[in-house]
Write a structure and sequence with these properties.
Strand content of chain A: under 5%
Low-confidence stretches of chain B: 343-348
Strand order of the largest sheet of chain B: 1-16-15-14
Shape of chain B: elongated
Largest sheet of chain B: 4 strands, antiparallel
Radius of gyration of chain B: 29 Å
Distance between the termini of chain B: 18 Å
Order of helices and strands of chain A: HHHHHHHH
Mean pLDDT of chain B: 91
Oligomer: heterodimer
Number of helices of chain B: 7
Low-confidence stretches of chain A: none
Number of strands of chain B: 16
Distance between the termini of chain A: 16 Å
Strand content of chain B: 35-45%
Shape of chain A: flat
Number of domains of chain B: 3
Helix content of chain B: 25-40%
Largest sheet of chain A: none
Chain lengths: 260, 348
């Protein structure tokens, strides 16, 4: 447990508290208060990201601490377009914000490190940001698709499937861009666009799983909604492993080890 | 035709999930073994099958040609695969057999100040892989550093270990976590210790750390001082506690002098080609492109004297890969974002 007493730590805990309150209000009282608290949580999380960026004098996306912090703020803008979906999952957004801020608040150290030469590239921020956007949208797609197993009516299951598919459709191009920007950057920094590094291979596996999901929809058509839900959950499991286990485990040493 | 299309779709699905499984398996092997795995002959068959599935898929679905996003994604994937195959070691060997001039695929080129070379070396074996159609001269190698962090110095515990198969020894160290004044127990030795005073690292200043050690008797205070020209200071523990029988004879506390983190490093070069000389600079993320080769700033060394290590890579196949990236990225964005989800789903 890594409890923080710094200003940044307090901002993170405040944002987490507001997100938790928004989630609780969403279940108890409905939309209005939940939205207000969610907006306030976003404002505080954004403040934390800006504070970190100004302290570091660079994009605060270098290590896992900063990545989870940035995701805590990205949850809000990515929740906006999902409100039009048949199953918007609006109640899940504050919970997602709370969960992604947890590692930044309680697990990872906030030690500020200077940017190594390889990360000093104009591709650094876009590469990480599009991945974070993809991860959040695909996390939400997985959460919505899990409702397939909640014993809902056929109509609700259809609405759930369409919503999960729409979220995956927004996230997949971001996942693709993240992979391509990373490969392009790898070519500029290390001399090859692909090194068969564990992180690269997990990212490729994740991309192939989601590409498989879209192909499976074409092959199987309607009636396999639960299988599609399983594929989205499998893709999200691969994302969790790519983002956390691959970086933290000594099993997967490689070129991306600075991202811890 | 519809049965063939259906088979093709199932084949594509098998390739995608098979590729995902293989990627996960490769991740557990590590980069070196995974490189060998994915370039082995059975995997070459897999890649060719992947490329053929894309070609046949594009031919079997004329409707895809009217959907720019779908076309871009599949054509982009095909170009990436084709470019990667062309740029691979096997691709280079095949090109040579087909009459193209031989090229070194990749290797390194090390240069000391003022040295000129065109020889590309295999970093693993040190053998010369071939010569470039140009030569590079190192005019200067520069390292730019961040200011030295003023964090409290780190303290290491180390013992000497023999290097297997050689008469040499090396230090096996571990970092000791400490807080000023807090008494800690030294794992593996019956010694308690605490840091009572320390100085923060600064350029050209001695670094010191005072530690209070105690075993059975009263505490003994020692100060480790690392002078500016020394890489570390060491306190041998055995002379302090000669009566401790289970203490390794080489057990030591080590105070290393921290180095300022590197901000940037660059090689100022002169490219010598066809009797002409032109200045150039190579730094991380800013490679140089000369006569079909990319030159990258990879690393540097200092033994026996400072030198730069440049990575050399043939650019064969890169144009196709690059076009593939653009088509795949733009295609995915177009296909999934330019239409409402329901229409996108119907089209899939």
């Amino acid at each position: 447990m890594n409890i923080k007493t710094s200003l940044l730590g307090l901002l993170i805990y405040a944002a987490m508290g507001l997100y938790a309150a928004a989630f609780a209000a969403g279940w108890r009282r409905g939309g209005r208060w939940s939205r207000r608290l969610f907006n306030a949580g976003f404002a505080v999380a954004l403040g934390a990201v800006l504070f970190r960026g100004l302290s570091a004098e660079r994009w605060p996306l270098q290590n896992l601490f900063e990545v989870f912090l940035a995701m805590g703020a990205l949850v809000w803008p990515l929740a906006l377009p999902a409100r039009r979906l048949p199953v918007p999952g609006a109640r899940l957004d504050p919970l997602l914000g709370f969960l992604v801020l947890w590692p930044a608040g309680f697990v990872l150290a906030e030690t500020l490190r200077p940017l190594p030469p390889a990360l000093q590239s104009p591709l650094f921020a876009p590469h990480v940001l599009v991945y974070l956007g993809a991860y959040l949208l695909l996390a939400k797609a997985a959460a919505v698709s899990a409702l397939q197993f909640a014993g809902a009516s056929p109509e609700q299951r259809d609405a759930t499937d369409r919503s999960a598919h729409a979220l995956a459709s927004w996230g997949f191009p971001l996942l693709t861009l993240g992979l391509l920007l990373g490969a392009w950057w790898g070519k500029l920094a290390w001399g090859d666009y692909w090194h068969w590094d564990p992180k690269e291979l997990w990212s490729l596996a994740t991309w192939l799983l989601y590409a498989g999901y879209f192909h499976a929809r074409k092959v199987l058509g309607r009636g396999s909604e639960r299988l599609y839900a399983v594929l989205l959950l499998a893709g999200f499991a691969a994302i969790i492993l790519t983002l956390s286990w691959v970086n933290l485990s000594r099993l997967f040493g490689g070129l991306h080890s600075y991202a811890v | 035709m519809s049965e063939f299309r259906r088979l093709l779709q199932w084949f594509a699905l098998a390739l995608l999930f098979g590729g995902a499984g293989l990627s996960i398996f490769g991740a557990f092997l590590g980069a070196e073994a995974a490189t060998r795995l994915f370039n082995a002959p059975p995997m070459v068959v897999f890649w060719i099958a992947f490329a053929l599935a894309l070609v046949v898929g594009l031919a079997a679905y004329p409707a895809a040609w009217r959907r720019p996003g779908l076309l871009g994604m599949h054509l982009g994937s095909l170009l990436i695969l084709a470019g990667a195959m062309t740029g691979s070691g096997a691709g280079h060997r095949l090109a040579e057999k087909c009459g193209l001039p031989p090229r070194v695929r990749s290797g390194v080129l090390s240069l000391r100040d003022g040295e000129t070379s065109a020889d590309v070396i295999d970093p693993a074996s040190g053998r010369v892989l071939g010569a470039l159609p140009f030569a590079l001269r190192l005019d200067a190698f520069e390292i730019e550093r961040y200011p030295l962090p003023s964090d409290p110095p780190s303290l290491l515990y180390g013992v000497l270990e023999p290097e297997p198969g050689t008469p040499r020894f090396h230090w096996r160290t571990r970092v000791l976590e400490w807080k000023p004044g807090k008494t800690m127990r030294l794992a593996g030795a019956p010694i308690q210790w605490r840091v009572t005073e320390f100085t923060r690292p600064a350029e050209n200043e001695p670094l010191s750390l005072t530690v209070e050690l105690s075993a059975d008797g009263g505490p003994r205070v020692h100060t480790l001082v690392c002078r500016p020209d020394e890489p570390f200071a060491r306190l041998a523990l055995y002379p302090v506690f000669p009566d401790l029988t289970n203490l390794d004879r080489s057990a030591s506390l080590i105070l290393p002098r921290p180095e300022a983190p590197v901000r940037e490093y660059r090689s100022r070069l002169t490219v010598l080609r066809g009797g002409k000389a032109r200045p150039a600079e190579v730094r991380v993320n800013h490679p140089l492109h000369v006569a079909g080769y990319h030159v990258y700033q990879q690393s540097w060394g200092s033994e026996p004297e400072p030198y730069t290590v440049l990575r050399i890579a043939s650019d064969r196949g890169w144009a196709a890969v690059w076009m593939g990236f653009v088509l795949l990225g733009a295609g995915a964005a177009w296909h999934f974002w330019m239409r409402p989800p329901r229409r996108a789903e119907a089209a899939l």
